[in-house]
Amino acid sequence: MKQKEKISLEKVFEKEYKIKHFEPENNKEAIITHFLHNNKNGVSQFFKKDAIKYTKEILQYKFPDEEITNFVAEEALQYGIFDTFEIPFPPVENPKFKFIDLFAGIGGFRLAMQNLGGKCVFTSEWDKEAKRTYKANFGERPFGDITKEETKSFIPDSFDLLCAGFPCQAFSIAGKRGGFEDTRGTLFFDVAEIIKRKKPKAIFLENVKGLRNHNGGKTLATILNVLRNDLDYFVPEPQIINAKDFGVPQNRERIYIVGFRNDLGIDNFDYPKSINKKVTFSQIKELNVPPTKYFLSTQYVQTLINHKARHEGKGNGFGYAIIPDEGISNAIVVGGMGRERNLVLDHRITDFTPTTHIKGTVNREGIRKMTPREWARLQGFPDNFIIPVADASAYKQFGNSVAVPAIQATAKEILKLIGNKQK
Ligand SMILES: C[S@@+](CC[C@H](N)C(=O)[O-])C[C@H]1O[C@@H](n2cnc3c(N)ncnc32)[C@H](O)[C@@H]1O
Fold first, then answer.
1. CATH number of the domain bearing residue 247
2. Of 36, 122, 189, 409, which has the maximum CB count within 10 A?
3. Any catalytic annotation for residue 168?
4. Span 30-53, mean pLDDT?
5. pLDDT tens digits, residue range 382-403?
6. 3-class SS at 234?
7. Do 42 and 164 lie in a common domain?
8. Picking from 22-31, 55-64, 276-285, 414-423, which range would have the lowest pLDDT averaged per residue?
9. Are residues 101 and 40 in the same domain?
10. 188 with 266, same domain?
11. What is the pLDDT of residue 311?
């Protein structure tokens, strides 16, 4: 095989990825990248047979005149024929624990866990744009739809921690206290099923604050009942954690649910305390933002003001606010139907001079949207985190993601308890 440059797996599968926003797609790239990234930790064996099979397919296609045997495919994999390690966040050397990353989005959990010395052994996310961002940063392509049995069949055994920021859905509860079966058909059911099958030492779930009162409190009560009684985990009272308490200028409250397998004998857990560090928007503000791209037109600013005035107090206006330099941002979120309502969580700059070509169209106050990089920073993503997608996708992805420092602080407490448990 005369191959000078590495083969880009993304290019090989490009056509298939173009078809749909969500699944279906095959898991070939996910299998190959999971195999490569789990080299030497015992987990790669799990993906090996399929990884060789698909590598052979790719090589046969690329080099039709050569004989590609299983041996050749395996050697090619070992010698790094694919471009999966030119990334800012490679797997950690000598990992301290293993985790899986469900509903992975762009890998907010993964970043936090890798920072703590963890090795991701399985990841799932079905949105193709989110997968692109994930792959660009971690080198691994997530598996797809987690509700599918085929996807679940790729989850290896024996990992320590299950992480999941799953979407919140109501259960149709038949009995008094909802149990495992009552959650069927929801994404929580899939999470619960994976816990039941794999029995990780600990679990870490994240959700919107509204989960606490969702469906009159029944949704959360059911989740806790399933985890505590059906799955036999010690689950302390869930806690609302605010991102701003962990060093980012964003007022983002989320509910965190942690749990420990009961046989580990853990019966107490302390959520992390605020680090008491005041950070303001000015500390994450991007300088020299291109005026035409992010500054709003005078008309648009007026539309927003009018709209807000009309809907004030009714709870259905655009959620926007102008954040002063020394303030902190509201929670960043993107509205339904792809409408980026909070893109207009704008920032008033003081040093704005309208340039000639935009004079008269751009508001003179210098109100602009925050940039995707600012949204990344608000969630605690470092600046070497690659944003390979268009702005509209980037806002959606960071808005959907987690505040990495808050997740990391909580995971640190979890690891203190399970770190020395061998089982
Ligand atoms: C709230 S976001 C979690 C974001 C993630 N914690 C992060 O740091 O970016 C939920 C994610 O679940 C994904 N998702 C929803 N249903 C799914 C399914 N059936 N299979 C796989 N992923 C799914 C969505 O595309 C979305 O990215």
1. 3.40.50.150
2. 122
3. yes
4. 89
5. 999 999 999 989 988 999 999 9
6. strand
7. yes
8. 22-31
9. yes
10. yes
11. 64
| Pocket lining for ligand 1, CB < 6 angstroms | 103-109, 124-127, 130, 145-147, 165, 167, 187, 400-402
- Ligand 1 atom closest to the Cα of residue 108 is 8
Dihedral angle computed from the Cα positions of residues 415, 417, 419 and 420, in that order, rounded to the nearest 10 degrees = 180
Distance 38 CA to ligand 1 centre (A): 23
CB neighbour list of residue 394: distance below 8 Å, 6 or more residues apart: 133, 372, 375, 376, 387
In this predicted model, which residue has the larger pLDDT, 268 or 286? 268
298 and 234 in a single domain? The answer is no
The residue behind tokens 């397919």 is 57
Measure 260 CA to ligand 1 centroid, in angstroms.
Answer: 23
The closest of 344, 343, 365 to 354, measured between CA atoms, is 365
Q: Report if residue 174 sits inside a domain.
A: yes
Q: Which residues pair with 202 in a beta bridge?
A: 161, 260
Q: Tell me which of 114, 123, 126, 162 to substitute to probe ligand 1's pocket, judged by most ligand atoms within 8 Å of the beta carbon.
A: 126
- Domain membership of residue 377 (yes or no) is no
Residues 156 and 84 in one domain: yes
CA-CA distance, 377 to 349, in Å (whole number)? 18
Q: How many angstroms is it from 356 CA to the middle of ligand 1?
A: 43
pTM for this prediction: 0.89
Q: Which domain holds residue 322?
A: 287-370
Residue 281 lies in a domain: no
Q: How far is the CA of 283 from the centre of ligand 1 (A)?
A: 29
34 has a pLDDT exceeding 70: yes
Q: Residues 297, 182: one domain?
A: no
Catalytic option among 168, 279, 333, 386: 168
Domain count, the chain: 2
